[in-house]
Amino acid sequence: MIRPIMKDVLFLSQSSEEATREDAAVIRDLVDTLNAHRDGCVGMAANMIGVRRRIIAVCLGPMALTMVNPVIVAKRGEYEAEEGCLSLTGVRKCRRFRDIEVSYLDASFLPRRQKYTGWIAQIIQHEIDHCNGVII
Question: Is 127 a catalytic residue?
Fold first, then answer.
C-alpha cells in the first residue's frame, strides 16, 4: 500500500525502534511507497511513512534493497555532501563516508553483512540517519 510521506520534523527526529517479523507489512508498504516516488526519491526509511521502525529501502536499479535493523559497522573516506529529502524542503549539507559496511536483516529476516561504496553508500547512510532520528 502506498502511504503518505511524513513531514512532521518532531516525529522524524525520534529514534526508531527495532523491527520484528510482525513488521513485514511495513516492509511491503515502504517498498510500494518508494516505487511510487522513484521519479524524485532513491531511498526511504519507515519513519517517512509514519512508522517508527528501523527499516529502510534503497533503489538498486529496478529493484529495491530492503534492510531491517541496519547498522553501519565500518566506514571510511569521509566527505561533505549536499542532500535533499522527500520529507523536508530544500537541500542541506552533511558528512558522509565513501565506503561503508552494513550489518542488517533482509526482507526474509535473514542476517546479512555487505560493503557498499559511492552513491549507494550515501543513500544508505541518509536512510540510517532517518532511523536514528537524525535530520540532515
Answer: yes
Q: What is the pTM of this model?
A: 0.96
The pLDDT mean for the chain works out to 96
Q: Which of 18, 80, 83, 127 is an active site residue?
A: 127
Q: What is the rounded distance in angstroms from the CA atom of residue 136 to the CA atom of residue 87?
A: 11
CB-based contacts of 40: which residues, under 8 Å, 6+ apart?
A: 86
- Closest by CA position to 55, among listed 26, 35, 89: 26
Q: Which fold would CATH assign to domain 9-131? A: Peptide Deformylase (3.90.45)
Q: How many CB atoms lie within 10 A of CB 114?
A: 14
Evaluate if residue 126 carries a pLDDT over 90. Answer: yes
**CB-based contact 123:43 (threshold 8 Å):** yes
Helix, coil or strand: residue 5: coil
Q: Which pLDDT score, from 0 to 100, does residue 82 have?
A: 95
